């Protein structure tokens, strides 16, 4: 018999069977992945083990080792489809969903979202290369960043990407590159958008508020007219404007308001400077459910709100609907992945707390020590055991702050048990490090009872791959 844990699934206590990637049942289609603690295909199997995508997590750790990122393909594809389908349902103009690949940029993730018709939002030449190698069309790659180098800009132009211009230095550099390239027979004017700070704040962590006036990103409102005037006199092909108001947002009102803020600049650009904008990018920011108390809106509700706000604003301004773009990252991939660890030792500090250690920590998930982020976890090899102890999950790094989860209720554990932390698809592998010279973990994608390696586990030798030892120091080594 297979069951789900009622306390871990918000919408239903009924059994959810593993489903093929092509033939998902309506019970899974109707769930918004960002509102779930578990990946959509997660069940408790007859061994009392956690199973994802038809694969026993304990068996996955036995095969691939730990720590191990486990990506559920059904959950990721469902999130992509819900974004895409919600636009078709709620927005009367053209729309394009772009995956914010900074959340997790690797060939497999980019290939999956690309195969669902999504474009890619990138912030470096490395992310451009990854998207291109994954088969994403350059016409669907949008290049962000507040300090793009001349080399990165040239690479993006050569690749055919759209560049989201962030500041004056970048704008002038692009104008110069365009002037140089205009001498070429095959010259195509650089396709750009302008990033503006809309002045909308959201109730989120200070470090991830990116849309208010005091931000390192985008042009300030007081310089917009000068920017429009410069672009109008340049040979740049400016197709529209972009704004992003933050991340891990549970409020819908700010996204309802952003259309009204952006349309005034859209209209100003056309009426005063003759700029024919056709695209509006309202960024991303929809949150996910990391712990039971989190209550984010669904993907469809977010799209419905954004679409209504933009539609009303443009109708009031007497403008045709723009092509509407959004850039979800966390809400696409965050809840689709878990991280499996092997439990090691434990330590009880009388009358204070019990620590349980795992074979990873801040090097594979830096968010708790960086943002004080909270997570939910289970012991994958004893899913129905009673939660009999309150423990703190500590990583193995030489850092007192390397705590993954503080004061969580778990069953009695022993060395060798498998701990699984939920919601680790966004900003975990992408922010991973080799702190204490730990190799980065492997990652697998699961579906239909099969698993495939998508990122190899680094070896100890990999850690030395880029090291150089000057000749004069060889006398101190035995190499």
Briefly characterize the structure.
With 479 residues, this protein is an alpha/beta fold. The protein contains twelve helices and 20 strands.
What does this 3D model show about the protein?
The structure is a single chain. The chain has 479 residues and is an alpha/beta fold. 27% of the residues lie in helices and 21% in strands. The protein contains twelve helices and 20 strands. Strands 4, 13, 14, 15, 16, 17, 18, 19 and 20 form a nine-stranded mixed β-sheet that branches. It has an eight-stranded parallel beta barrel with strand order 5-6-7-8-9-10-11-12, surrounded by six helices. A three-stranded antiparallel β-sheet has the order 1-2-3. Helix 5 (125-133) links the parallel strand 6 and strand 7 (141-143). Helix 3 (73-90) runs parallel beside helix 10, helix 8 packs across helix 9 and helix 9 (253-273) runs parallel beside helix 10. The longest helix is centred in the middle third of the chain and has 21 residues, at 253-273. It is globular. The N and C termini lie far apart (56 Å). Residues 9-26 have low confidence and may be disordered. It is an enzyme of class 4 (lyase). Specifically catalyzes the decarboxylation of meso-diaminopimelate (meso-DAP) to L-lysine.
């Amino acid at each position: 018999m297979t069951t789900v844990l009622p306390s871990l699934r918000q919408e239903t206590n009924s059994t959810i069977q593993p489903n093929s990637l092509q033939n998902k049942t309506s019970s899974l289609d109707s769930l918004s992945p960002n509102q779930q603690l578990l990946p959509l295909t997660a069940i408790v199997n007859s061994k009392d083990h956690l199973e994802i995508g038809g694969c026993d997590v304990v068996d996955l750790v036995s095969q691939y080792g730990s720590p191990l990122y486990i990506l559920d393909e059904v959950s990721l594809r469902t999130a992509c489809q819900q974004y895409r389908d919600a636009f078709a349902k709620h927005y009367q103009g053209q729309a394009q969903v772009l995956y914010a690949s900074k959340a997790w940029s690797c060939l497999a993730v980019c290939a999956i979202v690309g195969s669902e018709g999504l474009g890619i939002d990138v912030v470096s030449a490395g992310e451009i290369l990854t998207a291109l190698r994954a088969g994403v069309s350059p016409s669907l790659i949008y290049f962000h960043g507040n300090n793009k180098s001349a080399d990165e800009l040239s690479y993006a132009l050569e690749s055919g990407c759209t560049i989201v211009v962030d500041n004056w230095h970048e704008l002038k550099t692009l104008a110069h590159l365009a002037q140089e390239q205009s001498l070429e027979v095959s010259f195509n004017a650089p396709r750009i958008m302008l990033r503006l700070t809309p002045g909308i704040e959201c109730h989120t962590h200070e470090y991830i508020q990116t849309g208010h006036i005091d931000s390192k990103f985008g042009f300030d409102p007081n310089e917009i007219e000068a920017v429009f005037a410069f672009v109008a006199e340049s040979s740049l092909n400016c197709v529209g404007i972009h704004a992003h108001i933050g991340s891990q947002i549970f409020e819908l009102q700010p996204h309802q308001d952003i259309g009204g803020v952006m349309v005034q600049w859209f209209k100003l650009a056309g009426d005063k400077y003759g700029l024919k904008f056709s695209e509006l990018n309202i960024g991303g920011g929809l949150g996910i459910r990391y712990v039971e108390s989190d209550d984010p809106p669904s993907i469809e509700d977010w799209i419905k709100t954004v679409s209504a706000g933009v539609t009303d604003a443009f109708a009031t301004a007497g403008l045709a609907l723009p092509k509407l773009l959004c850039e979800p990252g966390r809400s696409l991939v965050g809840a689709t992945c878990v991280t499996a660890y092997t439990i090691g030792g434990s330590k009880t500090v009388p009358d204070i707390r019990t620590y349980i250690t795992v074979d990873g920590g801040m090097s594979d998930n830096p968010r708790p020590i960086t943002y004080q982020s909270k997570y939910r976890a289970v012991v994958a090899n004893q899913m129905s055991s009673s939660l009999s102890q309150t423990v703190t999950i500590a990583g193995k790094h030489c850092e007192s702050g390397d705590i993954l989860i503080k004061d969580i209720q778990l069953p009695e554990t022993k060395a060798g048990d498998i701990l699984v932390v939920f919601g680790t698809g966004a900003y975990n592998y992408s922010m991973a490090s080799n702190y204490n010279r730990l190799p980065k973990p492997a990652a697998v994608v699961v579906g239909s009872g099969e698993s495939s390696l998508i990122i190899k586990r680094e070896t100890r030798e990999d850690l030395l791959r880029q090291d150089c030892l000057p000749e004069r120091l060889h006398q101190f080594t035995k190499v």
